[in-house]
Specification:
Elements (H helix, E strand, L loop, with lengths): L2 E3 L19 E3 L19 E9 L3 H12 L4 E4 L15 E2 L7 H8 L1 H24 L7 E8 L6 H13 L4 E5 H8 L5 E10 L2 H14 L3 E3 L4 E6 L4 E5 L4 E9 L15 E10 L13 E4 L5 E5 L5 E8 L4 H6 L1 H15 L7 E11 L6 E4 L6 E5 L5 H16 L7 H4 L5
Parallel strand pairs: 3-4, 3-12, 4-9, 6-14, 12-19
Antiparallel strand pairs: 1-10, 2-17, 5-8, 6-8, 7-8, 10-11, 11-12, 13-16, 13-17, 14-15, 15-16, 18-19
Helix pairs in contact: 1-6, 1-9, 2-3, 3-9
The protein binds flavin-adenine dinucleotide (FAD).
């Protein structure tokens, strides 16, 4: 039986979109002009066959393309924009195994065993991402970092102590830090914190470009400025049609379309909201906190921060349910001043000025888990949506689960992510 989504030839300027084009970000993200972030791409003009077509050349599509190409699968990546210029360009790229939902909370939502599995899988994904970067010599400013999770209005020091014990029992590398140690070591005045190993930071534009180039070296073809408008799936092959009438035939299709979610994605499991970020001007070394660990807080609204390779502080948060991109972008000035004020309160005595301020669409799910799933209504089609602040960690998890799926295997943790843990 044939399943199809929007595959009637779309009239010009009025197409029933397979994914609705959105204004994914506003303002000026730090990474947009990173030297080395461009990728040689093709323009789709004719018909092409492949094993796997990946729609979306952001970090999810890039890691998936590289993982599948390494397995010897013949892949194409198709993007309506330049690779890495969607939400990936807006990311603050703190790479963590710790999910937005603490382990204690996630255990209540999905059960302790599954929550432990989700956390351990995330930890493994960060390790695997680092390995992939090293293996392919991807120059993306990766640095190993610890992560410091500060007590806040969502979880105080007592809650953090319990969280630390649960994580220890699950084999996760997190330790409780009391207020005195926090003050002495980091100069931060909070009632307590968790300090975790196994995190990192990177430049997401360089990671994406590097992963795509490594995939290209293995035969993957990358198309830009090509919008896929329709898909026909008939059981043993999938046909993709682009805005310019170029077509692709694939054995399998993976939708790594980010927050421009594909029609056919399970409904009611996620919301698309907004988040804001700033980067300061470059600072002297003495302006940084010891170890330059990632810092985030158990608070709402929350602040998170990291250092960059060029000595800036990158901070984000102030998330809201705002969905209108014009209002999201109009709020950049106010939100960036709030982030700066929160930074100044956490790290007093520095002179901090904003060089970059931006906003982006953001996906959340009630569990904080992503949606990584085969699509029920479209045979041989698969979709990836990284929810929450761990989007890039989830991109790596998704690449691995998609790789198993593309080989007719089932990843042992796929049940955790099919419906964001539900
Ligand atoms: C402000 C902000 C801060 C963040 N901070 C962090 C962080 O610290 N750590 C972390 O891990 N994550 C973070 N994230 C989340 C992370 O950045 C995202 O999860 C990740 O970048 C999503 O990547 P993606 O490849 O799935 O999506 P995208 O980068 O948006 O790529 C999807 C691509 O699909 C293409 N596309 C869509 N539809 C079609 C179509 N029909 N035809 C052709 N192409 C199509 C788009 O053009 C786009 O390029 C943050 C996000 C934001 C906005």
């Amino acid at each position: 039986m044939q399943a199809a989504l929007a595959f009637r030839k779309p009239p010009q300027h009025s197409v029933p979109m397979l994914t609705q084009k959105k204004d994914l970000r506003g303002g000026t993200p730090l990474w947009t002009d990173s030297p080395g972030s461009t990728v040689r791409t093709r323009t789709a003009t004719r018909h092409e066959h492949c094993d796997v077509a990946i729609i979306g050349g952001g970090v999810s599509g890039a890691l998936t393309a590289l993982t599948l190409s390494e397995l010897g699968l013949d892949c194409v990546v198709i993007d309506r924009r330049k690779p890495g210029s969607g939400s990936t360009a807006a990311s603050t790229a703190m790479i963590q195994f710790e999910l937005d939902t603490p382990l204690t909370e996630l255990s209540k939502k999905i059960g302790a065993r599954r929550a432990n599995r989700a956390y351990r899988r995330s930890l493994q994904a960060v390790k695997n991402l680092k390995r992939l970067i090293q293996k392919h010599d991807i120059d993306c400013d990766w640095v190993d970092r610890d992560a410091l999770y500060l007590a806040g209005n969502e979880m105080g020091f007592r809650g953090l102590k319990i969280e630390a014990a649960k994580r220890k029992a699950a084999g996760l590398p997190s330790d409780y830090v009391d207020a005195a140690a926090l003050r002495d070591t980091f100069g931060i005045d909070r009632t307590g914190a968790l300090l975790s190993q196994g995190a990192g930071e990177l430049n997401p534009a360089l990671l994406t470009a590097g992963a795509l180039r490594a995939a290209q070296a293995k035969g993957c073809r990358v198309y830009s400025d090509s919008t896929v408008t329709a898909v026909k799936a008939d059981g043993d092959r999938v046909e993709l049609i682009t805005e310019t009438d170029a077509t692709f035939t694939a054995k399998r299709v993976i939708f790594a379309t980010g927050y421009e979610t594909v029609a056919g994605m399970p409904k009611g499991l996620f919301d698309i909201t907004s988040s804001w970020a700033i980067a300061t001007q470059p600072l002297p070394d003495e302006a940084f906190w010891p170890t330059r660990c990632l810092i985030w807080e158990a608070a709402d609204p929350y602040l998170y921060l990291r250092a960059t390779a060029d000595n800036r502080i990158l901070a984000g948060g102030e998330d809201s349910g705002l969905t209108d991109p014009a209002r999201r972008d109009a709020a950049i000035l106010v939100k960036s001043q709030k982030l700066l004020k929160a930074l100044n309160t956490l790290l007093p005595g520095r002179t901090l000025r904003i060089d970059y301020a931006w906003a982006g669409a953001f996906a959340t799910s009630p569990t904080g888990l992503p949606i990584i799933t085969a699509l029920d209504e479209l045979p041989n089609c698969f979709a990836i949506l990284g929810c929450g602040g761990n989007g890039i960690t989830f991109s790596m998890v998704a690449a691995e689960i998609a790789a198993a799926w593309a080989q007719d295997k089932r990843d042992a943790d796929s049940d955790l992510f099919e419906r964001a843990g539900k």
